[in-house]
Design brief:
The protein is of the alpha/beta class and 329 residues long. The chain contains twelve helices and twelve strands.
Length: 329
């Protein structure tokens, strides 16, 4: 008898087969806890109940567009607080999958400077230990287990701490089998750096999503990542750092080249983020919302000859495949 694979969400385990249409790279809330705690009257004006209500409303709109699952990649460094996400999930019909890992552009928080391999005090890999605990036991006393690992390689490249995070993520992945998803600077081809480190740590690259790949039309770079086995996160639809038509064309061209089975689609947006001024953010990116893909992107892809089958592959089959392969190695 075959036992069906399941995946933890903010409201409990669900069968992987029930994920349905899935956004693989999103955020519910991106916050700065130290700023909020010390200057609660900061300009962004966080209101817990109001923001939770707005998140529920936006998830309701997403569900109405036929989407069933959202992957929240808010990890340490972006203000992750899972009890707040649970409050949203309990009022929504959308599965919310949460992550562990660290958003580190250059340097880790001071706490980690004096703990772990390569630090003055040495000792075990505290990062990997925390990541594994989030996956196997649960987060912040909620019992909600993380289903995947997140790490970052941006403009600064493989600094000492960025390299350390990638290797800790690789170790946690090897121990638990949780898939890896990343943030990259595609213009600087940082996905290659990530694949290099992961390969050195024995990671199966077919279990890795290289994020923000849709930020570039360097097709040789994209094909190279995919040919190594990794999925390409075409996950910033609505963000106008790359024009809408160009983002659509990049995905369409990769489909023409036969890479639909190696791509996932998303927006990388949030209900609330104090990473930048919220008003200006909306003005500059009016389509940066969770319903942009079903309402605008999918029709645009179809008009460029992308088949419905390829769209279903990117939105349904690939996420399901990413979470179906389980177990450490």
């Amino acid at each position: 008898m075959t036992i069906e694979a399941t995946i933890p969400t903010a409201t409990g385990e669900v069968p992987v087969s029930a994920l349905g249409r899935t956004l693989m790279h999103e955020h519910i809330f991106v916050t700065s806890p130290e700023v909020q705690q010390n200057w609660p009257d900061y300009p962004e004006q966080w209101d817990e109940d109001a923001q939770i209500a707005e998140a529920v409303q936006r998830l309701t709109a997403l569900k109405a567009e036929g989407f069933d699952t959202l992957v929240d990649l808010t990890v340490i460094g972006l203000g992750r607080y899972v009890p707040r996400v649970v409050r949203v999930a309990e009022q929504s019909d959308v599965n919310i999958v949460v992550a562990t890992g660290a958003y580190v552009l250059s340097e880790l928080p001071v706490y980690f400077h004096y703990r772990g391999p390569g630090t003055p005090a040495g000792g075990p890999d505290r990062l990997a230990e925390f990541f594994v605990r989030d996956i196997t036991e649960g987060i912040t006393g909620t019992g909600v287990r993380a289903a995947l690992l997140k790490c970052v390689t941006d403009e600064a490249g493989l600094t000492k701490d960025v390299d350390r995070v990638l290797r800790s993520v690789a170790h946690a992945h090897r121990e638990t089998g949780a898939p890896i998803t990343t943030h990259t600077h595609s213009g600087l081809r940082r996905g290659l750096d990530q694949q290099k480190v992961f390969k050195e740590e024995g990671v199966d690259l077919t279990r890795v999503v290289i994020g923000h790949s849709g930020d570039t039309d360097d097709y040789g770079y994209l094909a190279g990542l995919a040919d190594e086995g990794s999925y390409l996160g075409m996950d910033r639809f609505g963000l106008n750092t790359v024009p809408f038509e160009k983002r659509v064309e990049i995905v369409a061209e990769m489909c023409r080249r036969g890479y639909a089975e190696r791509m996932v689609l998303s927006h990388d947006t949030s209900c609330f983020s104090d990473m930048s001024d919220p008003v200006r953010r909306r003005e500059l990116n009016p389509q940066w919302r969770w319903t942009h893909i079903p309402q605008d992107v999918v029709p645009a892809l179809l008009s460029r000859g992308v088949s419905q089958q390829d769209i279903d592959t990117m939105l349904v089959d690939n996420p399901r495949r990413i979470f179906t392969v389980q177990g450490g190695y």
